[in-house]
Amino acid sequence: MQSDQLKRRGFITLLGGAAVAWPLAARAQQSERMRRIGVLMPYAENDRDTPPRVTALSQGLEKFGWTEGHNVRLDHRWSASDAESTRRFARELVDLAPDVILTDTTPVTAAVLRETRTIPVVFVNVGDPVGSRLVASFPRPGSNATGFNNIPLTMTSKWLELLMEVVPRTVRVMFLFNPPTAPYAERFFEPFKAAAS
Questions:
Q1: How big is the CA angle at 189 (ends 180 and 133), to the nearest 5 degrees?
Q2: pTM for the full model?
Q3: Backbone torsion region of residue 147, taken as left when φ is above 0, otherwise alpha when ψ lies between -120 and 50, otherwise beta
Q4: Residue 54's domain spans which residues?
Q5: Residues 164 and 88 in one domain
Q6: What is the pLDDT of residues 91-145, one digit of tens each?
Q7: Reading across the β-sheet that carries 121-124, which strands appear in turn?
Q8: What is the distance between the alpha carbons of residues 166 and 163, in angstroms, rounded to a whole number?
Q9: Residue 75, beta-bridge partner list
Q10: Separation of alpha carbons 49 and 177, rounded Å
């Protein structure tokens, strides 16, 4: 019994505390059932960086006692940053009713959250989860989503500072982004402008 509890805790911890939506009673009754994780990534399945991502996730889960095919099933979807594929796969994963959905990037996470407000969603590589209204705040997400922000808004000012150290005579800098894949970019532009002044 204790071993099962440790495995469940490890699974929950690994996925960023997504078990908020898993009632304690349901976990106790279904301790032996196969868990299901939906995974929606904005990369192409045949992208050279895809296999290492899949391997890293599987190895991370295994460290906590979750072995694919034994006690956990991973349903991967790869949208290749195509907005229509992202929406379709988000719907598809929600229809599978997984225990949790893992997403990567702001557009992918937003697409999944439009489809469900009950299945826990754990995101990575989201530029500004609060500003994008994916969560209410970092300490209290206030929804079914939680995750990791690896690029703080102030990072853009550091980029400019570094550029000025490398090329001190720089007088004009361009800030480029693709609005469909970086809807949060405007918020990154404010610290960038402040540093420029």
A1: 55
A2: 0.71
A3: left
A4: 2-147
A5: no
A6: 999 999 999 999 998 899 999 999 999 999 999 988 788 878 899 988 888 889 9
A7: 72-78, 35-41, 100-104, 121-124, 145-147
A8: 5
A9: 38
A10: 22
